[in-house]
């Protein structure tokens, strides 16, 4: 069943709430999970993983919110959320009282079967009723680069890839980044160089080698394939692609809200470069 691998974030967001960590405060997760007939408890996801996914969601939310604020009306901006799964980011960030200068085009993208499930279980953002906001749920595979063609590139755009990059083959991920940058580059739009952004998390080769220790991967029979040791090497994929922020997870503020075992784990990771860089949040401009 494709629920196995598309998204455990809603279930973990519920756990986040029950733990009262307030890392993400995803009030939509309970409603989403209640509509899915799936034994989430059998995934054996520990409190540390729950806390991390809460941190990740909150950190990327912050980057997206900041991008929206920096690109107000009349031109506005576009948010492209790749491999959206059952994620409720659009609901979290857009179903709030909008300021007069907000103009956002939000596009969630995932596989056709995921889009079908999402339409059944995820509340559709009532954005038509909010001035300056529009929402699209688009079927497409990130490994088939034809999905990029219909994406509008007439505004500053932020590409969000949460929980995606590590699951791609290296050549797939590199081609995806290159093609996205080419499509949204300033040569095809009217804006200046660097007006677009790309945000995601990346593991390194150390994490790749230790994936057998991750219980939820074994339970869902999923695997990770792409580890990036030199995150600046991705700049070579497209002229103008520049890394502007790099945050090892062990340095995030939310670590202090993790369970004790999680805090100890991330503290130990911070001792050595290879473990400190085992999982990083990255922001590029292009």
- Provide the gyration radius in Å: 18 Å
Distance between the termini: 37 Å
Q: What's the total helix number?
A: 11
Strand order of the largest sheet: 3-2-1-4-5-7-6
Number of domains: 1
Mean pLDDT: 82
Keywords: Methyltransferase, Transferase
Organism: Rhypophila decipiens
GO molecular function: methyltransferase activity
Protein name: S-adenosyl-L-methionine-dependent methyltransferase
Keywords:
single chain, 286 residues, alpha/beta, Rossmann fold, 35% helix
Task: Please give a structural write-up.
The chain is built from eleven helices and seven strands. It has a seven-stranded mixed beta sheet. Strand 1, helix 5 (89-94) and strand 2 (104-110) form a beta-alpha-beta unit. The protein is α/β, with parallel strands linked by helices and 286 residues long. Helix 2 (9-18) crosses helix 4. It has a single domain (3-285), classed as 3-Layer(aba) Sandwich (Rossmann fold), CATH 3.40.50. 35% of the residues lie in helices and 16% in strands. The protein has helices spanning 3-6, 9-18, 29-34, 47-70, 89-94, 112-121, 170-184, 205-209, 215-220, 260-269, 273-276; strands at residues 77-82, 104-110, 133-139, 157-161, 197-203, 242-248, 279-285.
Describe what is shown at a glance.
This protein has 286 residues and is α/β, with parallel strands linked by helices. The protein is 35% helix and 16% strand.
Secondary structure elements and their pairing?
Blueprint (H helix, E strand, L loop, with lengths): L2 H4 L2 H10 L10 H6 L12 H24 L6 E6 L6 H6 L9 E7 L1 H10 L11 E7 L17 E5 L8 H15 L12 E7 L1 H5 L5 H6 L21 E7 L11 H10 L3 H4 L2 E7 L1
Helix pairs in contact: 2-4
GO biological process, one term: methylation
Keywords: Methyltransferase, Transferase
Organism: Rhypophila decipiens
């Amino acid at each position: 069943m494709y629920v196995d691998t598309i998204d455990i974030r809603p279930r973990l967001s519920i756990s986040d709430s029950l733990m009262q960590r307030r890392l993400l405060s995803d009030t939509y997760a309970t409603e989403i999970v209640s509509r899915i007939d799936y034994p989430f408890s059998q995934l054996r996801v520990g409190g540390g993983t729950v806390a991390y996914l809460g941190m990740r969601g909150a950190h990327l939310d912050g980057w997206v919110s900041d991008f929206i604020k920096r690109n107000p009306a009349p031109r506005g901006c576009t948010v492209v959320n790749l491999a959206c799964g059952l994620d409720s980011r659009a609901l979290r960030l857009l179903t709030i009282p909008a300021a007069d200068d907000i103009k956002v085009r939000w596009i969630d993208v995932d596989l056709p079967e995921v889009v079908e499930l999402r339409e059944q279980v995820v509340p559709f953002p009532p954005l038509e009723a909010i001035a300056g906001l529009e929402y699209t749920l688009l079927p497409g595979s990130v490994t088939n680069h034809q999905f990029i063609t219909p994406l509008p590139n007439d505004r500053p755009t932020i590409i969000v890839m949460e929980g995606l990059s590590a699951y791609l083959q290296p050549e797939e991920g590199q081609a995806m980044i290159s093609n996205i940058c080419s499509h949204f580059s300033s040569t095809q739009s009217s804006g200046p160089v660097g007006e677009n952004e790309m945000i995601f998390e990346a593991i390194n080769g150390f994490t790749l080698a230790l994936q057998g220790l991750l219980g939820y991967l074994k339970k869902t029979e999923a695997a990770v394939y792409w580890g990036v040791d030199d995150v600046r090497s991705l700049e070579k994929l497209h002229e103008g692609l520049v890394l502007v922020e790099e945050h090892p997870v062990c340095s995030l503020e939310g670590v202090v809200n993790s369970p004790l075992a999680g805090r100890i784990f991330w503290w130990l990771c911070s001792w050595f470069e290879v473990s400190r860089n085992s999982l990083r949040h990255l922001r590029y401009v292009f």
